[in-house]
Specification:
The protein has 221 residues and is of the alpha+beta class. It folds into two domains: 5-151, DNA Polymerase III, subunit A, domain 2 (DNA Polymerase III, Chain A, domain 2, Roll), CATH 3.10.150; 167-214, no CATH class. Helices cover 16% and strands 33% of the residues. It contains three helices and eleven strands, in the order E-H-E-E-E-E-H-E-E-E-H-E-E-E. A four-stranded antiparallel sheet has the order 1-6-7-8. A four-stranded antiparallel sheet has the order 4-3-2-5. A three-stranded antiparallel sheet has the order 9-10-11, covered by helices on one side. Strand 3 (61-67) and strand 4 form a beta hairpin. The longest helix is centred in the first third of the chain and has 13 residues, at 27-39. The radius of gyration is 20 Å and the shape is elongated. The two termini are 38 Å apart.
């Protein structure tokens, strides 16, 4: 099932800013945020905003938001070093490919992840500068990102049970059993002792039925 984002209202945050906003973000953090959010951006150029990453900022916060209508990722960095307390909230939609290219170019390795990187956001572009090395500018997209907050908010009403699992094990099920497109129906087992899953995997002209169990992650003492 996809989320009908075409009918969502656009975000109330004004994407235009009167003057440039300067952010300082560690190289490793920016690389992670840009690279991860690019994975969840869409590839359908019929809906332009799907192919972008919405950069959002405010006092002490920097956020990346992307979606392909089936998945959504919202990454947020907080801290006094990100922006000043007097920065007006704003947003800018930029191409995911440009962010991915910058992520690949950012310094990495021992001692490099904490290197402060300058991110200068204006009304129509974002410029990333690695001091003493290089500077790259991405032009903003002529599109608006939809209102997204309600799509990732916890359900209202009575508290719902939560269940923590190892993401590597989830990935193993996809690689070994279901592939990219076959779904698994998950149910939280009695007393929340396990996740119970059922699926079928087409193999030639035959379907193999699977029953799956996944134990919760143990919390640190």
């Amino acid at each position: 099932m996809s989320v009908n984002l075409e009918k969502c209202e656009t975000t109330a945050v004004d994407s235009a800013v009167d003057s440039a906003v300067a952010l300082s973000i560690p190289s490793g953090v920016l690389r992670h945020m840009f690279a991860a959010s690019a994975v969840f951006a869409g590839k359908d150029n019929a809906i332009p905003f799907l192919m972008g990453i919405n950069l959002e900022w405010g006092p002490g916060v920097f956020r990346v938001v992307s979606t392909d209508r089936y998945r959504m990722a919202v990454g947020e960095l907080q801290g006094e070093h990100v922006t000043g307390s007097d920065v007006a909230p704003g947003s800018l939609l930029v191409p995911a490919k440009g962010c991915a290219d910058i992520a690949k170019a950012l310094p990495k390795g021992r001692g490099q992840d904490d290197l402060p990187v300058s991110v200068l956001v204006s009304s129509d572009s974002v410029t990333v500068t690695v001091p003493g090395e290089w500077s790259r500018t991405i032009t903003a997209m002529d599109a608006r990102f939809p209102e997204w907050q309600a799509l990732v908010a916890p359900p209202k009403g009575d508290p719902h049970p939560t269940f923590r699992v190892n993401p590597h094990y989830m990935a193993d099920f996809a690689k070994a059993i279901t592939g990219k497109f076959q779904s698994i129906e998950w149910t939280i087992g009695e007393h929340m002792q396990r996740l119970y899953g059922e699926t079928t995997s087409p193999v030639g002209r035959t379907e193999v039925s699977w029953k799956l169990a996944l134990m919760p992650c143990r919390q640190p003492a």
